[in-house]
Amino acid sequence: MDKKNKDLNKFSRRKFISRTATVAAGISIVPRHVLGGVGYTSPSDKLNIAGIGVGGMGRANLREMAGENIVALCDVDWKYAQRAFNDYPQAKKFKDYRKMLDEMGDDIDAVVIATPDHTHAVTAAESMKMGKHVYLQKPLTHSIYESRYLTELAKETGVATQMGNQGHSGEGTRLFAEWIRNGEIGDPIEAHCWTNRPIWPQGLERPENEPAIPSTLDWDLFIGPAEYRSYHPAYTPWNWRAWWDFGTGALGDMGCHIMDPVYFALDLDHPKAFEGSSSQVNTESAPIAEKVIYYFPEQSKLNKINRPELKLTWYDGGLMPERPEGIKPGKVLGDNDGGAMVVGTKGTIICGTYGRNPYIIGREDNPPQTNKVIPRVETSHEMDWVRACKESKNNRVEASSHFGYSGPFNEVVVMGNLAVRLQDLNKKLNWDGKNMKITNIGESEEIKVVTTDKFTVVDGDPKFNTQYATINAQEAAEQYIKHNYREGWKL
């Protein structure tokens, strides 16, 4: 038996002896979440919430839940997390979420997770298996398989869940959907989504120097399930989004915000195919700019609209769709951070980032007056989840972006990175959504991906030494869809 299992057995034995002694003394102390059965917390109670990854967005999410009990804080980098530690001085502090769950499992009702993308699935899955409600930052997961896994796990465990794409709870997203479904732009025929991200460096090669690991950082825990590499400040605490092993680039960062109004309004399912192009893509990090096209099949009628085949195009890194007919000269498409647009047979609708401020071209001063048939979120995105946590799972109104919705949606978002990383195949990739498989890659097909693109300047002329890795495309696709984890890590 390994040391970890021995420690767990000792811990479980100690808890059993303690509880047995309490019962023998004639005292029965039952955790409040057990009183109403698994997954139940009295609506009048405060949740006991733990934060995992609290240095950035995790801190912001917890501040939205300040009326609840923040009982534990976990972060691999205690310097970056110090502000959150200062917010809740009574909360117990941890670096390893597994130790936190082992030691405080009975005292935690719910967890808020805002770690780097590559550790979303493992932290969420372990929490859910212990019956903890989960608020998980976007993108929901690093891979397609992980999204499918968490979707199914949410059904099995019955815990309350929410992905951190806060625009989904906003008024704009709901108006966008209601106007489209009411036929205000006719039948949708194409869609476009764009962002000004990345606002961090991408297209990077792996750093060669190996500086000392800061004393406040547990580097091995940061690496988590990813393949081990040496520490460098280019990876954390901020720029991890750029690196394929840790993040999902600009598409993963903002796709769950910007594509959401379109996916929600049209009630989309799996695309049937996709393809991508970008600035130079390498083996280490996401490209500086990219374009991904998703092809969705025809679907049945929705409210007042038909849903013919739809082409949805994603742009980032400064790329933009063509300006639509009728848009006023000088008017920003969406807002300065990005936006989404659906072109229909009768008109075009546009919204800003997070679904904000939707309008139909030519009707800016005369917006549709449709019935508000989609339920509104009266509180914040975070507190909508808190409310769901406090309801019995048998009578719960799920939070607005619960995993039953956000899991399938996130599959679509992160598959865009498949399109970009496999673009050297030079073809549209056919997608079997049920089986999570690209169906038109041959066993012997290969892709060439840049490993280094260093150059020297000779007499004012840059001389590049571009080198490539040749990779089996089918094996690469399988690994992008379902990752292999480092030894000691699993879902």
From TrEMBL:
InterPro entries: Gfo/Idh/MocA-like_OxRdtase_N (IPR000683), Gfo/Idh/MocA_oxidrdct_glycsds (IPR050463), Gfo/Idh/MocA_OxRdtase_bact_C (IPR043906), NAD(P)-bd_dom_sf (IPR036291). Transmembrane segments: none annotated. GO terms for molecular function: nucleotide binding. Residues 48-164 form the Gfo/Idh/MocA-like oxidoreductase N-terminal domain. Coiled coil: none annotated. Pfam families: GFO_IDH_MocA, GFO_IDH_MocA_C2. Residues 210-294 form the Gfo/Idh/MocA-like oxidoreductase bacterial type C-terminal domain. PANTHER family: BCDNA.GH03377, NADH-DEPENDENT DEHYDROGENASE-RELATED. This is Oxidoreductase. The lineage of its organism: Bacteria, Pseudomonadati, Bacteroidota, Flavobacteriia, Flavobacteriales.
